[in-house]
Amino acid sequence: MAKEGLGLGLGLGLELSLSPPGGKTEKNERKRTFLEIAGEGNGSTGEHKSEKKNQVVGWPPVCSYRRKNSFNGREMMKMYVKVSMDGAPFLRKIDLGTHKGYDDLAMALEKLFSCYGIREALRDEDSSEFVPIYEDKDGDWMLVGDVPWEMFTESCKRLRIMKRSEAKTIEVLQARNFLKGASKDV
Amino acid sequence: MREDRPPPTPSRGGAYSPPPPDQVLENVLEHVLQFLTFRRDRNAAALVCRSWHRAEALTRLELFIGNCYAVAPRRAMERFRRATAVTIKGKPRFADFNLMPPDWGANFTPWVTFMAQCYRALEKLCLKRMFVTDEDLELLASFPSFRELVLICCDGFGTSGLAVVASKCRKLRVLDLIEDEVTDDEIDWISCFPEGETCLESLIFDCVECPIYFEALERLVARSPSLKKLKLNRYVSIVQLYRLMIRAPQLTHLGTGSFSPSEIVAQGDQEPDYSSAFDACRSLVCLSGFREIVPDYLPAIYPVCANLTSLNFSYANISAEQLRSVIRYCHKLQIFWVLDTVCDAGLQAVAATCKDLRELRVFPIDAREDSEAPVSDVGLLAISEGCRKLQSILYFCQRMTNAAVIAMSENCPELVVFRLCIMGRHLPDHVTREPMDEGFGAIVKNCKKLTRLATSGLLTDRAFSYIGQYGKLVRTLSVAFAGDSDTGLKYVLEGCPRLQKLEIRDSPFGDSALRTGLHRYYNMRFLWMSSCRLTRRGCKEIAQQMPHLVVEMINGEEEEVKDDYVDTLYMYRSLDGPRADAPSFVTIL
């Protein structure tokens, strides 16, 4: 795929792609929609089908103010939880919705608390200095990283980064046993 | 209220006109006409005869301009010389959805310039979808009696303009900024309110996306004993909200700001008793905000739920369970806005408790046409069965059935506004796979008070035949991705005598249909048609046949329109001909 201006010396940085280039997206998308209707929509070719998946301008009719302040896809859902770290004087608040996975979360936490070792904690529990745990919907404290990310974001109510030395091992072990399917004491 | 009018004498400095022959009648007329408040009544009175026209013009205190280009500022203000309250609406509604290029117009400057000469006694101003500059605001702030500023969906100004208004309008009672786009000029405008007690009654700034200096806000609230409405932006944390609430327990309308802790909270800090702050607000009837809600804090609002008539959760990502815990107390609720994250189950909870509900709006958390919306016909049906007094509904969903819409038309005869948005384009009834014609048909047929309708889903011309046949009171109609042919639009233009605002996008209506509306267009506020099948020639014909109609062709880009098709047609009647400020991408035919 030629990245230079097609040898025309335009220097516009044109790129070949299926979708219309950035600035013209809106108008061309609208025109495609018009063409779909003109061709009665249903008989769309493969290419039109992929265009259909692209967002038409201004549809659904949510006004731009609300769109900007709301959410446009699951990735951007705001899920605020408090995070505390043993030894740190301040609680933090983070938006789980802005993170794509555990690694991403770990990096963000490391930056927030200016410490390292959280990523290690998530990968290999035993070596790290930290034990990240979270309180779930039922009020139980669970180890971070064992369930799929979506499930985690849906059930996490707050986060705590414990120092391994301070960890009440019983609590943590209970959490791990629960996750491993052992029956839970009522 | 009888006053004896003094005999006419030359007024100081103003023009002197000799008294009309029947001065007594004129006086009586003016006194009587003062009691007319409704616009329509006043317009009717003005048509009776010349002296009524004159008397009405002199006694009209509230001037309403539905389309800023329908009349020139001079003409409007010279006729209604004594108006002290003005409302002006600018861009058409589809501009909210980015269907209008920026810099299209609706400039407030020509209006305020004239007001500076003619309307120095101006007290109240309400602008919707207008472009307002900081200089305009500065000019407004110089009017000595100015006390109420309401800006809705406006842009063009920033916090520096707000700072001037705050500091110079000594009598300011209302400053309501609603869904505006406000640039951050990094000025602490809250600090610009003068020291000493203010007469502020309403301060709404939830749309202002700039941090504020909290201590200044706290001091302002503390010295505003008349403050009844306060809507905070998302930069106000829940702790700060608490501090404000305990200073203003007299509030009736509260926008809670972020409703979550700030980014940093000291560990081990005792959190205040938020619910006690709510408990102290005995007069609270309207609650909104929750911009970054941490749902843990929801129980704080329980004490006020029983008194709430209006609750806006439309920025709050909450579940059905979380909603249920709140809504079960809200027996008096009349207006409810919410996100579809509450699912059908959440709406069922609303239906079970809110028997007095008049207005419901359900917004999508994921506003894309292929998103999986968690509300459906099930939620709509539940609402229709539980909330029989419903008057207005806006409902975003993906799955809908004719049966549910028909049920709503039968259960909710008081419906005045019905706006259903099935987000996937051309989607049929998800059970029967049929078009949504019968559902919308039932709405226009059974809801005899219906004045506003927005359609969606797969619709054939039949749907429009129903609208034309039964929608006799419809004033506003919004259509998107609907219809088969010109016939659809013809049904509407021929059948709906009260049509005022017609906005259509991406529907197969062409010149022939446009022609059938010639008898309507002078009585309408506007017609919008984008991405339809109109040609330049067709539009030009209309322009030629109707000289008082301004026919604007708007192109998305500055290039020649291909195939003679018109991107966007926006047309409206005007008493003063085409506007002088049209940008290059607008062609006025």
From TrEMBL, chain A:
One cellular component term from this protein's GO annotations in UniProt: nucleus
Residue ranges of domain PB1 in the record: 78-166
Entry keyword annotation includes Lipid metabolism: no
InterPro entries xrefs: AUX/IAA_dom (IPR033389), AUX_IAA (IPR003311), PB1-like (IPR053793)
Subcellular location per the Swiss-Prot or TrEMBL entry: Nucleus
One GO process term, biological-process aspect: regulation of DNA-templated transcription
Domain of life: Eukaryota
Keyword Nucleus listed: yes
Spans traversing the lipid bilayer: none
Main subcellular location: nucleus
Keyword entries, A-Z: Auxin signaling pathway, Nucleus, Repressor, Transcription, Transcription regulation
Alphabetical list of Pfam families matching this protein: AUX_IAA (PF02309)
Record family assignment: Belongs to the Aux/IAA family.
Function of the protein: Aux/IAA proteins are short-lived transcriptional factors that function as repressors of early auxin response genes at low auxin concentrations.
Assembly and interaction partners: Homodimers and heterodimers.
PANTHER family assigned to the protein according to its UniProt record, in alphabetical order: AUXIN-RESPONSIVE PROTEIN IAA17 (PTHR31734), AUXIN-RESPONSIVE PROTEIN IAA5 (PTHR31734:SF87)
Protein's name according to its UniProt entry: Auxin-responsive protein
High-level lineage: Eukaryota, Viridiplantae, Streptophyta, Embryophyta, Tracheophyta
UniProtKB/TrEMBL annotation, chain B:
CDD domains for the chain: F-box_AtTIR1-like
Domain Transport inhibitor response: 83-127
InterPro entries documented for this protein: COI1_F-box, Leu-rich_rpt_Cys-con_subtyp, LRR_dom_sf, Transp_inhibit
Organism: Actinidia chinensis var. chinensis (Chinese soft-hair kiwi)
UniProt pathway annotation: Protein modification; protein ubiquitination
Record's subcellular location: Nucleus
The keyword Nucleus appears for this protein: yes
Domain annotation COI1 F-box: ranges: 22-60
GO terms (BP aspect): auxin-activated signaling pathway; SCF-dependent proteasomal ubiquitin-dependent protein catabolic process
Keywords attached to this entry: Auxin signaling pathway, Nucleus, Ubl conjugation pathway
SMART domains: LRR_CC (SM00367)
Chain residue ranges for the region called Disordered: 1-20
Listed name of the protein: Transport inhibitor response 1-like protein
GO CC terms: nucleus; SCF ubiquitin ligase complex
Keyword Translocase applies: no
